[in-house]
Structure formats: structure tokens, C-alpha cells
Specification:
Helix content of chain A: under 10%
Largest interface: A-B, 24 and 22 residues
Order of helices and strands of chain B: EEEEEEEEEEE
Helix content of chain B: under 10%
Structural class of chain A: mainly beta
Structural class of chain B: mainly beta
Distance between the termini of chain B: 41 Å
Number of strands of chain B: 11
Largest sheet of chain A: 7 strands, mixed
Strand content of chain A: over 45%
Oligomer: heterodimer
Shape of chain A: globular
Number of helices of chain A: 0
Order of helices and strands of chain A: EEEEEEEEEEE
Distance between the termini of chain A: 37 Å
Chain lengths: ~120, ~110
């Protein structure tokens, strides 16, 4: 089956620092990946679409200068939370779109806590 | 704007019962609908994907139906087991593979 990994699985950082989260598709190539965030007891909200070789497209209300996305290769996308603040604390989940099955496969998520 | 609603928000049933989870969406112009399972603190596991042209999909004890015209989907779980306890999310593909998620149904199966 299709496997997507995320690293780290959890991270604690101080307010004002930046944090990078990696999303990898392990056994398939993904030209498109997605980043979501999930607050406690709430559903997933799409933040941005990550496209290999081009700029990410952000959903309305998501600050692109705060959430930097780089889709460096067909198997890797990174999300950098810049100048993190406590309100950025959340569960961040990525997904990778597999063309052959029309499905998105989700990573295990990264829990970010900003103190 | 597409909105997805799941009812009920939480459900608790004894082991062995059959159950139905509901999902409704406001805009019938969807490409497909997907049901996921999420365990606490974990990512999502895809259960079933229904294309807009399909009426249902089955996988083991799970059966998902789609009525695009009425904006509804159901997930039927037969002979429920304690291991089925999780949050179930439905999501519609509004285009360009962008998924809009419901709030989820938190299911508890009591032994």
C-alpha cells in the first residue's frame, strides 16, 4: 500500500523560532501534496497545495509568508512555520496524491507545540 | 462554498451491531467522496473512495453509498467490533484534489 511519512512526529519549540516539517511519499511519486492543520476535536482544514517544481497555492486566510512550503522533489514536501507563536500550536497533517488511484494518502501527522 | 456535515457527532453501540454513519454536503458538484478513519493522535487511513459516477463501494464489513443529487453519503459498518472504535471522517473532492472534510463521527464500540 501507499505510505506517507512525516518527520518529526512531534516538536516543541519556543515562540519566535521556526520549525520545519517534512512529508515524504515512500513508495510512489507525488507531484501534488497537501498540507492540513487540525485543532483539537475539530476537522482537518486545508492550508495549501504543494506542487513539485512550482510555487505552492494557499487557501484563503493562510499566510504564505508564515507557512513556507517547498516541494523539493517528487517524494518530498516541507512546511516551515516561521516565527512560531502559541496560536500555531496544532496537529499538522500532509497528504500525497497518487495519480494512478485518484486517492490521497495521509501522513501520520506532526504535533507542534509552541511555548 | 462547499460544506460537509456529519451526523451524529458521536455514537456508542454494543459490539456486534450494524451501524450507519451519515455525511451530507451542500454542493453536488463533486469529483469523488472519501471515507477515512482517524485514531486518536494519528493520521488518516483511507477506507473507501467513491467516484461521482458510482453509487457505492464495499470493502469487507464496510459499505459506502453516494447519492450525489441529494448531497448524501452513508458508511455502513456490519458486525461492529471494538477495534472499529475511532473517528470517521468523510471528505468531498471539490476539484484539483482539494478535500473538504466533515467534523467527523466519534465511534465507540463497547465490548
Amino acid at each position: 500500500g501507499a505510505v506517507v511519512s512525516q518527520h518529526p512526529s512531534w516538536v516543541i519549540c519556543k515562540s519566535g523560532t521556526s520549525v520545519k516539517i517534512e512529508c515524504r511519499s515512500l513508495d510512489f511519486q507525488a507531484t501534488t501534496m497537501f498540507w492540513y492543520r487540525q485543532f483539537p476535536k475539530q476537522s482537518l482544514m486545508l492550508m495549501a497545495t504543494s506542487n513539485e517544481g512550482s510555487k505552492a497555492t494557499y487557501e484563503q486566510g493562510v499566510e504564505k509568508d508564515k507557512f513556507l512550503i517547498n516541494h523539493a522533489s517528487l517524494t518530498l514536501s516541507t512546511l516551515t512555520v516561521t516565527s512560531a507563536h502559541p496560536e500555531d500550536s496544532s496537529f499538522y497533517i500532509c497528504s500525497a496524491y497518487r495519480d494512478s488511484t485518484y486517492e490521497q494518502y495521509f501522513g501520520p501527522g506532526t504535533r507542534l507545540t509552541v511555548t | 462554498k462547499q460544506e460537509v456535515t456529519q451526523i451524529p457527532a458521536a455514537l456508542s453501540v454494543p459490539e456486534g451491531e450494524n451501524l450507519v454513519l451519515n455525511c451530507s454536503f451542500t454542493d453536488s458538484a463533486i469529483y469523488n467522496l472519501q471515507w477515512f478513519r482517524q485514531d486518536p493522535g494519528k493520521g488518516l487511513t483511507s477506507l473507501l473512495l467513491i467516484q461521482s459516477s458510482q453509487r457505492e463501494q464495499t470493502s469487507g464489513r464496510l459499505n459506502a453509498s453516494l447519492d450525489k443529487s441529494s448531497g448524501r453519503s452513508t458508511l455502513y459498518i456490519a458486525a461492529s467490533q471494538p477495534g472499529d472504535s475511532a473517528t470517521y471522517l468523510c471528505a468531498v473532492n471539490r476539484g484539483a484534489q482539494k478535500l473538504v472534510f466533515g467534523q467527523g463521527t466519534r465511534l465507540t464500540i463497547n465490548p
